[in-house]
Write a structure and sequence with these properties.
This protein has about 400 residues and is of the alpha+beta class. Helix content is about 65%, strand content about 10%. The protein has a four-stranded antiparallel sheet. Strands 5-8 form a two-stranded antiparallel ribbon. The protein has a two-stranded antiparallel sheet with strand order 6-7. It is globular and about 110 Å long. This is Branched-chain amino acid ABC transporter permease. Keywords: Cell membrane, Membrane, Transmembrane, Transmembrane helix. It is found in: Cell membrane.
Amino acid sequence: MMRQVPNIAAVLFLGVLVAFPFVYTAGDYDYVMHVLITAFFYAILASSWSMLAGYAGQFSFGHMGFMGIGAYTTALFCHYLWVADAPTGLCDEVEIFGTWFIVVDAIGVTSSTLTQDCLREALAADPALSVGRMPVLLGIVLGTVMGGLAGFLIGLLVLRLRAAYLALFTLGFSEILKATISAEIEVTRGQAGLELPSLYESGITLLGTTYDKTAKLPPYFTMLGLLLLCLGILTWLARSRFGLFVRALREDQDAAAALGVNTTRYKVLVFTITCAMAAAAGAVQAHYIGIITPNLLFLLQMSLVVAMAVIGGVENFFAAAVGAIILQVMLELLRNSFEVGGYEIDMTIWRLVFFGLLLMITLRFFRNGLLAPMIEYFTRGHVAKETVARRQAAEAAFEAGREAGR
């Protein structure tokens, strides 16, 4: 029964998250929903990074970089590629199965896509011409694929490195990516940011209720669903032979190689899968926010993901995910300033200090995080006691049999 406690707690926690949007009716509804959507986003990043670092022992600082690849792939795709039901005769276009795909020129920071001469002139010349963006879902899929492909290529290049070398390489990769995005102003608009269509640009109807593109409920369940999908994939991988092999890499890579494990292959695979998850989260979050900038790739953001995973429990991706959700909510709650002895404490600054202190305490006294040990206690904490009790019972039965035989 004790072993079922984490499962029961997980079901209850998920039930609360599912029911919350329907029972919470306060005036700050949109703000609270935004905080939770962002928390799910960080939970995906923290849990996938936990699989990479906690299970496979591959410490990477490039996770936010791959998230950025997913976000910018879907942004560029939806920003520069348009579809029309007829040829414009003015734009760079190609016909595929009766649909015309239009590629517009780079726009810089001073104009929007629809002010491009070719589209403007085409729409003015033919008012019946229908021009629309590419499907958002296709952009998200492409972002996920590009993130996974980038992870695969970089994994082939650097995953023969170990320890600090891998961390330094991925840190350099993330910084180079951020600098490149910032410098290519004509294409990415630099710090001005790229605008994206909303997740549900035309609205969506759920259970008879129509939600417009600004509603929080559809993206809430979209991000929650993506989180559950990622956790399901990670659970399946962890319980398979794949999970056994990547844990062997963490414990002793040389010993695993001596036993026949293709260490490079499994390191590249786990790196690719976790990078694809980060890219998927970045693509969905980009469409939810509606604009992306290179600020997404700051090292502080990567440090936040690592801290969430460590405080939750880096060797348990469920603990890392739950820890990310709780910590993101706590960081927002700590924005409220308060007075002590007539002095006002600005928590918008000090909240990060408390977060850092919590991280230091966790690293010093709870090396496997705050949540993972509790899960471990209920799932495996009584195994040793049960084993000893069974052995003692067997020994007692054996002695009783010997006494009876005399």
